[in-house]
Amino acid sequence: MSLDKNGIAKRIAQELKDGYYVNLGIGIPTLVANYVPNNIEVILQSENGLLGIGPFPEKGKADPDLINAGKQTVTTIPGSAFFDSSLSFAMIRGGHIDLTVLGAFEVTDKGDISSWKIPGKMVKGMGGAMDLVAAAKNIIVATTHTDRHGKPKLKTKCDLPLTGIKCVKKIVSDLAVLDVTDKGFKLIERAPGVSVEEILEKTGAPVIVEGDIPEMKL
Amino acid sequence: MSLDKNGIAKRIAQELKDGYYVNLGIGIPTLVANYVPNNIEVILQSENGLLGIGPFPEKGKADPDLINAGKQTVTTIPGSAFFDSSLSFAMIRGGHIDLTVLGAFEVTDKGDISSWKIPGKMVKGMGGAMDLVAAAKNIIVATTHTDRHGKPKLKTKCDLPLTGIKCVKKIVSDLAVLDVTDKGFKLIERAPGVSVEEILEKTGAPVIVEGDIPEMKL
Amino acid sequence: MNKVVKNAKEAIKDMRDGQTFMLGGFGLCGIPENTIHALVDSGLTNLTCISNNAGVDDFGLGLLLKKHQIKKMISSYVGENKEFERQLLSGELEVDLIPQGTLAERIRAGGAGIPAFYVPAGYGTEVGEGKESREFNGKMHLLEYGLIADFAIVKAWKGDTMGNLIYRETANNFNQPMAMAGKITIAEVEILVPAGELNPNEIHTPGIFVQRIFLGVDYEKRIEFETVRES
Amino acid sequence: MNKVVKNAKEAIKDMRDGQTFMLGGFGLCGIPENTIHALVDSGLTNLTCISNNAGVDDFGLGLLLKKHQIKKMISSYVGENKEFERQLLSGELEVDLIPQGTLAERIRAGGAGIPAFYVPAGYGTEVGEGKESREFNGKMHLLEYGLIADFAIVKAWKGDTMGNLIYRETANNFNQPMAMAGKITIAEVEILVPAGELNPNEIHTPGIFVQRIFLGVDYEKRIEFETVRES
Hints:
heterotetramer; A: 3-stranded mixed sheet; 5 helices; 13 strands; about 15% helix; C: alpha/beta; 8-stranded mixed sheet; 6 helices; about 25% strand
């Protein structure tokens, strides 16, 4: 059975390691924070100028000077730090972030990603997405395997305007975990009860399948 | 009579305006701080990371964490700020310093300056001098008119390695004040009792002399 | 030296139609509310505005957009604003969208006297079209240029009479780099103290970057998306 | 997450002959004294050192120079050191002199993922020889490259267990940009506190840049030129 949003977030959380500095995009990626294993410490960066994002504030305690990159009110953890936007992107561009998780409209087997603009629709802007994908050491895309019309979002070429090229390293979808390798997509895990055949059918690019593909353990 | 060091510094202090941010080089330029007119406020920048240099500390009160760019112990004035070297040179390079005063081995009528290296002698390095001269909006050179062998330091071409080109705007020497104009040196003032003839004779480049040249008022 | 002005109106008194200004803030967090209101009252038009975001319909930059005072926006993300969308689609408003980190760095570079620099962001995308590119360390980069503005308008938490500024929490954001990049930088602050009362180790923006400062009033500090913990 | 190490010896345990390191400080102000002593004890050789200055004969970097551990210095000003002069003139030591502001910016750029940028400093001088140059805004500039190092070794005043750092007065200098530019950044501090005790508004170097931190001991803080007021 395909995963829901929380399932995807839960699987991505397994990629976290103790001491990681992580930037989580808006949407499913944000949910990853809810599944950080108890035995490790992960520091969340918000590109508007915060290291050490804490949980949302209690009701009535929101501080207008303390928001995340999605403009939501947040809190901080002990050991947090505030800084300006240029230093924030120095962290990102300089490769100091260990892991970036973001959503996508399309991802290719070369690691290209489209995530910011749909022709004909209002263009809101790329925000920090292009900086993040261009510089992150390790990018995981959190996405559904197909769009709401059932069309593959994992393809050989992006039809929508690109956010970055040759940058995505791994995809965690509602159906599978795939690595982006020099030779293209490689199937790593299946969602519980989802067959390799279904994954291949719903992927718009060749997928390398080697040996038995295990089910995700969630 | 030619000015002594303090006389040169005193004349340069007349160029200061209220609210100026000023970087003073080592040597005669440092003395300028002693002659800031009482009715104006000038903020001194030290390129190692301080805005608002105060007087030297009282005996026994030197703080090893608080030095100027000449590595001397200093104090701060109310309203001072500390910052790192990259921000310090952002101020300098970005043109935020109103006036830079520095010494020189040679200056040309094009505004070129040599001040950091004498072939055959130990090279200590340029420190911040090249950054300062390349970016300052307004550079005054404080110098003796001739070297200790009596040779002109104001010339048509620097013989020593350059610190920067086309940057010096004004020279205050022990004999005269000269502007560096598009057409070369222009005599502005004479030191008290020094004749125009003496200045011309001791300058190694043509000097524009227009009308009566007033004596400095010190 | 006197950098203190009475209010926002006095701070922008010599601003002219057609000029370029930078406006600090991220969303509605850390925006210079007093000066925005003074700009609305000024009736200045044909302005180019460098701001990460564009406010909402009835607050922040949205107020200037509604009065058609802005000719061009230079931003990274301009959602959350219907009037903006309308003007953009009708061609009344010109928009230059820039990756957020590149925007922040272009502003810092402008203030730091760096005319141009290379970044990887945007290479291979439409952002890179028409731009110079070059390979460094096996990776392609775009040449990006420093940005300065006639006026930089920033909001800080505390300031002193010499223009030294301290920002609070994530209300720092674009305010700090923009303070460096204005030919004239105007700072409005919630707390204005005499020189010497701020700890010189804690200053984010040294006073050299700030030409005018005033004590802001009546801060609304509107929250864009109030999000609270589920209990 | 555990960034706290016992001492300087542990902090540099995996440093190798021939590596490049950055060393914070300006003159003898703000230098990482503990780690310098550990480097002397380590016997590491053939090192390339990026440091604004070179210490004095019997303190700071001078101690490493005396033991011939440094192959190459990248600095802006190297006076105040006779042994340095001797090694330089005899050809034992290689020196790359860089304008101080360019050096600071190259280090920040390295840490910020900017591979190259343009500055006016040095154009038309021997510093510009062999370098790419280009005109911007009617003025010539040199292309300069970002710098990183295998290790950046910095000294801060206060630090916490997550690596957040606060510098004191002019002991900040090159420490802050260098902290950004080490593949491994080691920070020694005078005061080490648990995470949460530093005010997050006051942090100069966010912990993300720091991999190892320890409480330094026995700081001498030697003054290079003690200058006092004439009474």
